[in-house]
Amino acid sequence: MEESKSIEETKVPQVVNKWQDEDDEEVQVDISKVARLRKLKRHQDEDKISGLEYQNRLREQFGKLHGHNKFVNWATKFGVEGDVDNEDGDDDGTQFQSRVGALKSTDLATLVSSGKETKLKQGTIEIENLKPANRTELSKSVISKVQFNPSGQILFTAGLDKALRLFQIDGDNNPKLNSVYFHDLPIGNASFTTDGSTIIASGRKKHYYTYDLGKNQIQKITHIFGSDERDLTNMLVSPDGNYLVFLCKNGYILFLCMKTRRLLFKLKMNGTCEAGCFSSDGSILFTAGSDGEIYQWNVSQRRCIDKFVDEGNINTNTLAISPNSTYLASGSPSGVVNVYNVNAANHCAVEPKPLKSLMNLTTSTDDLCFNNSSEILAICSKWKANAVRLAHIPSFTVFANWPHANQKMKFTHSLAFSPSDEYLATGNDEGRAFLYRLKHYSFA
After folding, report:
1. Which of 231, 282, 318, 330 is buried most, with the most CB atoms less than 10 Å from its CB?
2. What global pTM score does this model have?
3. Residue 195's pLDDT is what?
4. Which residue from 166, 165, 207 is spatially nearest to 184, judged by alpha carbons?
5. Among 64, 67, 85, 68, which residue's Cα sits nearest to residue 76?
C-alpha cells in the first residue's frame, strides 16, 4: 500500500467568530491585592484594570506557561463537518466547542498562580475523595488510560469499549465535553500531544487514530509505512513534541514524525520492549523489557549510550522518570518497584544500585507516575483490588493513611496527576475514573 493512502482524513470544519461579552469592559479587577495576580502588572503603580484587559493578560501569561494551542482558545468557536461520533447527541459539535470556549478567566488565574512553596512531608497525606471524574458518563469497559491535558482543565478516559470521553475537571460536577467512538479500535493506550491539541489512540491493531480537539476531527492512520507491526499499544509522545514512538514486542522502537506520521528511524534492543519513558527535555529515552535491562538512548544520535541490569527484576514492564529528571522508577511482574538516581546510573563503572526498592505491591506493576513536583510516586496493579500506593520522594516511604481500609477503588489500570498536582485520577475495571484532591497542592 502506498504511503499516501495510509491516512484517512475527515473534512476540516468551518470556523466562525465567537461571542464577546460587552460587560467585560465595565468590570474592574484589582490585581494589586492578590499576590498571584501581581505578575500581570505592566508597571509598578498599576492596580485596577478592565475585565477585558484582565482576560488578555491571563491569555498571555497562560501562553507563556503552557504554550498556545487551538484547543484552549477563548476567542474561537467551531462548527463541525466531521465524522466524529458524538454519543451525547451533539451531532454538529457546536455544544462541545461552546463549552470549551466557555472556560473562565478564573480558571486560568488559578493556572498562572505560583502554587505551594512548602515541601510535601512524609508519613501521612491529606487527600480528599471527590465525585468521579466521569460521573456524567461512565465507560462501558475497563478504563485503560486516563490523562489530563497540559492546562489541567480537561481529562480523558479511554478504554476497551472503543470510546474516548472528555470531561471538564472542576472537582465538583466534572461535566462531559464530548465523546468519540472508534468502531474498529478497542483502545489500549492514548495520549495528548505535547500542546494538548490532539489525542492519539492506539491498541492491538496495526492502525491508530488521532483526534483533533480544536477541529473536532478524527483521522485514521491505517498502518505505519515501513513496518509490519500489528500491536501499537505501547506508545509514547516525546516531551519536545517532535516524535510519536511505538515500542514493539520484537524489540524495535519506532520513531515517527509527529507532524507527518511518517517513520523516521528505528532502534533495536534485546528481547521484547515492554516499557519506556523520556527525559523531561526529550533528549534521552529509557526503555526496558524481557531481558531485565534498562537501556538509555540518545535520541539525536540515534544510539544506545548506556544500559544496566534492573536489580532483582528478570522482566521490567513499567518505567517512569520524574519531571525533574532525577529519579527513574521501574516496575516488575512481581510488584517490586526500583527507584534509581538517574545521574548515578549514567555511565557508571559498576552496575547502579536502586536508591530504594518499594515492595508494597504483591502483584504485577501496571502503571507508574510521578507528580509534577517530583515529590510523589504513584504505583498501581490491576490484579488486586485497591492495589494503589503513593510513595513520598525523596524519603521513599509510602503514605500510611491512603488508601484506607474502606476505600473501594476496585482494580486500578491507570493513574494520572493534573499539571498543578491538585488532582489524582485513577481508572478502574468497572469504567469509573475516581478523582482525588491532594490538599497540599490545592488552591481551594
Report:
1. 330
2. 0.78
3. 94
4. 207
5. 68
SS3 330: strand
Q: How confident is the model over 150-197, as pLDDT tens digits?
A: 999 999 999 999 999 999 999 889 999 999 999 999 999 999 999 999
Quick count: other Cβ atoms within 10 Å of Cβ 41? 14
Scanning 23-91, the segments in alpha helix (DSSP H) are 51-66
Instruction: For residue 66, give the 3-state DSSP assignment.
Output: helix
| C-alpha–C-alpha distance, residues 21 and 37, integer Å | 22
Instruction: Give CA–CA dist 310/240, Å, rounded.
Output: 27
Answer for the pair 64, 73: CB distance below 8 angstroms, yes or no.
no
DSSP code per residue over 348-414: -SSPPPPSEEE---SS---EEEE-TTS-EEEEE-TTSTT-EEEEETTTTEE-TTSS-TT----SEEE
Amino acid at site 362: T
Contact 218, 84 (CB under 8 A): yes
Helix or strand holding residue 98 (H, E): helix 94-101
- Greatest Cα pair distance, the chain, in angstroms, is 67
Of 63, 57, 67, 66, which is closest to residue 36 (Cα–Cα)? 57
Q: How far is CA 170 from the centre of its chain?
A: 17
> How confident is the model over 106-131, as pLDDT tens digits?
344 444 344 455 899 999 999 999 99
- The Cα–Cα gap between 377 and 319 comes to 12
CB 221 within 8 A of CB 229: no
Closest CA relative to residue 79, chosen from 9, 164, 11: 11
